[in-house]
Amino acid sequence: MDEYEYVDTRLFNNSNDSSQGHEDFLQFSKFFLPCMYLVVFICGLLGNSLVLVIYIFYQKLKSLTDVFLMNLPLADLVFVCTLPFWAYAGIHEWVFGNIMCKTLLGIYTLNFYTSMLILTCITVDRFIAVVRATKAYNQQAKRMTWGKVICLSIWVTSLLVSLPQIIYGNVLYLDKLICGYHNEEISTVVLATQMTLGFFLPLLAMIVCYSVIIKTLLNARGFQKHKSLKIIFLVVAVFLLTQTPFNLVKLIRSISWEYYTKTSFHYAIIVTEAIAYLRACLNPVLYAFVGLKFRKNFWKLVNDIGCLPYLGVSSQWKSSEDTSKTCSASHNVEATSMFQL
What we know:
Layout: H1 19-57, H2 64-81, H3 83-91, H4 97-131, H5 133-138, H6 140-161, H7 163-168, E1 170-173, E2 177-180, H8 184-218, H9 225-255, H10 263-277, H11 279-289, H12 292-304, H13 308-311, H14 314-330, H15 333-339
Antiparallel strand pairs: 1-2
Organism: Ceratotherium simum simum (Southern white rhinoceros)
Subcellular location: Cell membrane
Family: Belongs to the G-protein coupled receptor 1 family.
């Protein structure tokens, strides 16, 4: 949780903002951000739990993509489970003690980094699967082994870069009890790490890899091409729209401290933060439900729990399953790799 989410009213003593405007902001932040936390928590909990259930009980880990898509919802799920604590603290104050403060800051940060690094790996994996399709298919077993090593390395790396929050996180009183880290030097290091691993690295990977993928798809033949391009643009657009505003605000704040004394700037912080957290809800849709195999397993789950007859889609599901089997048997490796985008 970012330390500047909480506002020390002493910062506004020399501000040109009216006291009434500041009071309005406090009331807005007291309800807006906790409400958004709870929305992201509920949607993220349902979506990521569903993905995990399908991967555990229905979809065997047969490819490197499956390994990454198993770890992504796990990271997002643990991430959203910390949000109710921050929601309560936003409405009232931090009442969970110093140890819980350090623990939740660590869990929150660990899974933030893990999620972003896995998104980067998924981007690179898609690049290899499309641009080097034949080689990737012939080395599936080797890629699976490397994928598990990479995922383990991501979790370990994320834990290491989360240590500053765990070590220096504590509970302080600033108008109310808050949980955060309040060392200026540590805040600078944390911000630089978040910007690098949590934004610029995934963004650079998307720009480079998806540019080459798009070029490859435009020169390829197959009915999946246009659908794959739409998915690519959607993935990049969602990442830019959800992550860029918050990271831009954080960057401005680190460069010009005078913005931090303006009430309007704090509105920008909490609104863009809420938008950024929507990624935990959107990741299951963008990275799992777009896949044909995953959707088929989803309908199997719905059928097994007895919901399919009530939805009135039993015959359509069976027809879709038969069609997908016929299609999958007729497509070559390259087309299948492109379709999994």
